[in-house]
Amino acid sequence: MPDTFNVDQVPFRFLTEDEKILLLSHVQYKAYQPLDIVLAAGQPSQGVFVIYQGRIAESECSTQPGEQLIQQQAAFMHYQAGEYFGSWSVFNGKAIHNFIAVEATVCHLIPTQTLLELIDSNSLFADYFQQSLTAKREIIAQHAPNQDMAEFMLARIADSTIREPLIVEEGTSIEDATRLMREHKADCLLAKKGNRYGMVTGTDLLDAVILQHRSLSTDVSQIASYRLITIHPDDYLFNALIIMTQQRIERVVVMDAKRTLVGVIELTDVLSQFSSHSHVIGLRVERAQTVEELREASFGLTDLIKALISTGVKTRFVMELLAALNSRILSKLFDLIVPQEMHPHVCLIVMGSEGRGEQIMKTDQDNGLIYRDGLDWPQMHKVMNTFSETLISFGFPPCPGNIMVSNPEWVNSTKQWAEKLTRWSQSFEGEATMNLAIASDSKPVAGNTALFKVARNTFFRRIQDNEIFFAHFAKAALRFDTPLTFFGRLKDSAGLDIKKAGVFPIVHGVRSIALESKVAETNTFKRLEQLVETGVLQKELADNLSEALSYFVQVRLQQQIERYSGDPTELDETPNEVNIKLLTALERQLLRDALSVVKDFKKYLVQRYHLTF
Amino acid sequence: MSQFMINMLFVGGSFILYIGIAYWARAGSTKEFYVAGGGVHPIANGMATAADWMSAASFISMAGIIAATGYASSAYLMGWTGGYVILAMLLAPYLRKFGKFTVPDFIGERFYSRGARLMAVLCLILASVTYVIGQMTGAGVAFSRFLEVSSEAGIWIAAAIVFLYAVFGGMKGITYTQVAQYVVLIVAYTIPAVFISLQLTNNPIPMFGMFGTHAESGAPLLQKLSEVLVELGFRDYAADVPSHLNMVLFTLSLMVGTAGLPHVIIRFFTVPKVADARWSAGWALVFIALLYLTAPAVASMARLNLLTTVYPDAAAQVVDKAEYDQILGNSIKYENRPEWVKTWEGTGLIKFEDKNNDGQIQFYDDTNTTFATEAESRGWAGNELTVNNDILVLANPEIANLPSWVIGLIAAGGIAAALSTAAGLLLAISAAISHDLIKKTINPNITEKGEMLAARISMAAAIVFATWLGLNPPGFAAQVVALAFGIAGASIFPALMMGIFSKKMNDKGAIAGMAAGLGCTLLYIFTYLGWFFVASTAMLPNTPEHWIMGVSPLSFGAIGAVINFVVAYAVCSVTAPTPQYIQDLVESVRSPKGAGAAIDH
């Protein structure tokens, strides 16, 4: 019944009419009862399944199909009508996971042969299936119920830390082996016997000497275990974890297709895949006792970002993590520089993108200080100067607008601060609008948070329900043309300033609405969530904006990383430039879609704020 | 090159100019994310305000109606100028401080009531749609002339263009387009006036020329005009009006109506700084005055030109009445009529009927009973030439035999005037329906897309409705607009005034007041002009004898406003008082200091 197959859904709508006919003539109609196995792990690929109705569960367990499996919560992904699965198997040759019908399910099967023909003939369609690893993960990750889980699952062995094993030749004594392990700080070694490797762990050595009373000169190859459990470097990290759990072992040997030894992967490495870098940096920051140590720790940030992005972690989570780490660094530096007795009387705030938690690479310092009304601290400005200087030496560039604690303009008592905000909100001047925009994203990072809250709440009480102010404030979001033609194509095929084209209109528009609705959140995504919760924005619009914004940020980041030379102190001259030529056809399509969301949002702002002048 | 081509060139050229400027203003945005100083200069904003303000009624129709009735129509000038001043001085600063863009938003908030908001939406829609009818009438005349089609076809074409303009152009930041429209409009208006003034009085400044000496006859121009008019049985140009009450009420009605019309108010909010807003209001007044002071000159000179076209000898120096009899007997032959009469006949806006079959054109007032015997003695069997007042400004350069590019220019000017105002009004109507009515009242859960769709649909519905009524307008463009002002003045103006200047006025009082003012005014208007302006449903003929106390439907707005005030205070005195927070709010808006500080304690 190919006539029930919907060729208008993505990605099939990219096909030409002829290709659609070819597709329809080959599509097979398949029906399954609940618990039927549609595709079992290890089976050769049949093609791509598109679900017409029903529900399919994807699970990692290859041994226990059936009801039990579903109840064990082994299913980590569900597919529903309109979604497809099995494309992995087409490219990998065989299925990695089990696909089991949860309900009575009807699928359309596009045979591998047909799919490959279509991929050959239609580049846009091919892109959808074949784009870069990151984008592929992106699409899948969006279907996953648990983002972190999905990202973890999709990381490959090769992306993780593969340790170089300690290898000893046949004939090495237990005593020598133990000494070597100690020297190399290894807790296992591989004993070579002919062409084979055997694993010897610390436990093995203890067992041999203490329980089996072998002599210290015994050849380690005798106690090694040659039934090695191996994994392919292209396999999923997730599978390594499963193997380790099932076999109750802590390390797996990585071997490629030709059975050549690549290395060893450890349980701790797998577990810390996600948190490791951030954890390590976080720890180093926490442990830092001097400014010097803190500086060392903060230099690790750029590498951390690169690592996270290359493992395909969603940009939004990278931003959150980075914001958390940055504020830890600031807070630690604050602890180190500001005298302890002053901590209850001052509050360090970060503003702008840092306050929103939306910076990726280390961005300009946008910070300020709020102190208790009437505080007597003569050294304040001197200390604040030191603070800014130190941050510059950490690789946080100085703010071009001089919005830093070293500038007395941005060091205020709670009363002064509330008054400043109020004055800006009443002045309608360009600079005041900018200052207000930056300040309305402020977030406390160190010191006495209550001081910040007092000032902010006073300000919130004072901003009137003045639509005329908000109209002028929001108008900045319309300042830059959306680079789309009337027909929705990209205006310029070379490059565009993604901040002007997409990021700023969304961030500023959402900021205006959030300020008007007195939303205390500063992060754009969270602001959107809150605006939906309070009924100010519709969910559909908010979701579209979130998606578009994260896409812009992701594309910008990809290109920033491509430009990054490896020197953490070097500055990117054009951080917002997106070279369209570097994008694949699908990425371009996504960019167009995201930009048209921006276009619609601008129309919405025009309507909401009466910006018809 | 034919006149048609020249017209197309000018109109097309002006459109390209507007689109070009709109594009330039968008693409020309700087690198800065936040603009310093707020962008638009007060002079530019003043021009934009003037372009919004000067509708087809002001540009196309007002001079025509002054020409037709003389001094009596000076109420339009006084009323509209005065109305602008009231708006700029009395209302805009407070509305700005209150922080609401639209009238329904202000009324809904100030009277803490959905009912008041709905009532305000209703008043606003009625007034605006009536206003659009006037715009469509005027735009229809302009389009029918320059495209050389019938006035019906002209009005539909105008409707389509205005709709497209509002949907596409109206959505963008168009201050500079408005500035261009003002420049086109004022140049188009004054250039023919300067030429004609030179021709008739040798004085290049029309305002002075009007009070100067008519070059051909040597008599003062206005005196000459009055003489000829009286000889033809028309009312003396400078004659006093029969009912002073009516004239005063009419002027008042135009003044107060201004305040309730939504599309101009927004202009006072477009400049970020209060001081700049004041300056641009001042400049706007200058730019408006430029046209309003030219209009009477255009009117009197065009009337004289029209008469001397029909009676070519009447322009010369005439000594006594006998000579006039002879001159007036010697009118132009229909077959020798000038080219412009032929073109305008094509639009149906000039009609000729040879009632006494003498082949000549007789143009006089055949409704004047005291003049009937004299007309009969001259062998006239009735007025043979009907000229629609609304064509006067557009036909003016043709009547004066000015070069054809001037005619093209004035076509572009007339269309600019109609477009800018009609687009502004349509946006206000669509915002009132989609935002105030649907989003804030009927269905708060409507999606943003749904809201925008509703805006477009209401815009389309408003224009179709207005165009349909504009095909058989209840009066000339300026009169229809005057009706709109009456409706707005009777309903919205008192609510705004009480909202700002009375702390005690409560929700029920305001609603009752608006309902009473609107109801009475509509009833009075529909009695004479037919229900919803369908003439056949009129209950009384629209002539001074049937008007109650000599008050014309155009003037009733002022009485409606008084009824509104009275009813509002009466109802207010017997219902629950205004909550304290609203009283504080009104106090803070009226206090000259920052309102923020007032709310804070």
CA-based shape of chain A: flat
How many domain units of chain B? 1
CATH class of the largest domain in chain A: Mainly Alpha
Structural Rg of chain A:
29 Å
How many domain modules of chain A?
Answer: 4
**CA-atom Rg of chain B in angstroms:** 25 Å
Notes on the structure:
Helices cover 48% and strands 15% of the residues of chain A. Chain A has a four-stranded antiparallel beta sheet with strand order 1-8-3-6. Chain A has a four-stranded antiparallel beta sheet with strand order 2-7-4-5. In chain A, strand 13 (251-255) and strand 14 (261-266) form a beta hairpin. In chain A, helix 15 (315-337) packs across helix 17. The longest helix of chain A has 25 residues, at 539-563. In chain A, 43% of the residues are buried. Chain B has 601 residues and is mainly alpha-helical. Chain B has a single domain (3-25, 39-304, 400-590), classed as Sodium/glucose cotransporter, CATH 1.20.1730. Chain B is 69% helix and 1% strand. Chain B has 24 helices and two strands. Chain B has helices at residues 3-27, 42-53, 56-69, 74-98, 103-110, 114-147, 151-168, 175-201, 206-210, 221-231, 244-260, 262-265, 274-310, 321-329, 339-347, 372-377, 392-399, 404-442, 448-471, 477-501, 507-529, 556-574, 580-590, 595-600, and strands at 350-352, 385-387. In chain B, helix 3 crosses helix 20, helix 10 (221-231) packs across helix 13 (274-310) and helix 13 packs across helix 17 (392-399). Chains A and B meet through helix 18, helix 19, helix 20, helix 21 and helix 22 of A and helix 18, helix 19 and helix 24 of B.
Q: How do you describe this structure in short?
A:
The complex is a heterodimer of chains A (613) and B (601). Chain A is of the alpha+beta class and 613 residues long.
Topology readout:
The complex is a heterodimer of chains A (613) and B (601).
Chain A: H1 17-26, E1 28-32, E2 37-39, E3 47-53, E4 55-59, H2 67-71, E5 75-80, E6 84-85, H3 87-92, E7 98-101, E8 105-111, H4 112-121, H5 123-130, H6 133-143, H7 147-154, E9 167-169, H8 174-183, E10 188-193, E11 196-201, H9 202-211, H10 220-223, E12 230-231, H11 237-247, E13 251-255, E14 261-266, H12 267-271, H13 276-287, H14 291-310, H15 315-337, E15 346-350, H16 352-356, E16 367-371, H17 380-393, E17 411-413, H18 414-427, H19 430-439, E18 443-447, H20 449-462, H21 467-475, E19 495-497, H22 498-516, H23 524-533, H24 539-563, E20 577-579, H25 585-608
Parallel strand pairs in A: 9-10, 12-13, 16-17
Antiparallel strand pairs in A: 1-8, 2-7, 3-6, 3-8, 4-5, 4-7, 10-11, 13-14, 15-16, 15-18, 19-20
Helix pairs in contact in A: 1-4, 4-5, 6-7, 13-14, 13-15, 14-15, 15-17, 18-19, 18-20, 21-22, 22-23, 22-24, 22-25, 23-24, 24-25
Chain B: H1 3-27, H2 42-53, H3 56-69, H4 74-98, H5 103-110, H6 114-147, H7 151-168, H8 175-201, H9 206-210, H10 221-231, H11 244-260, H12 262-265, H13 274-310, H14 321-329, H15 339-347, E1 350-352, H16 372-377, E2 385-387, H17 392-399, H18 404-442, H19 448-471, H20 477-501, H21 507-529, H22 556-574, H23 580-590, H24 595-600
Helix pairs in contact in B: 1-8, 1-18, 2-8, 2-13, 3-6, 3-13, 3-18, 3-20, 4-11, 4-13, 4-20, 4-23, 5-6, 5-20, 6-7, 6-18, 6-19, 6-20, 6-21, 7-18, 7-19, 8-13, 8-18, 10-13, 11-20, 11-22, 13-17, 17-18, 18-19, 20-21, 20-22, 21-22
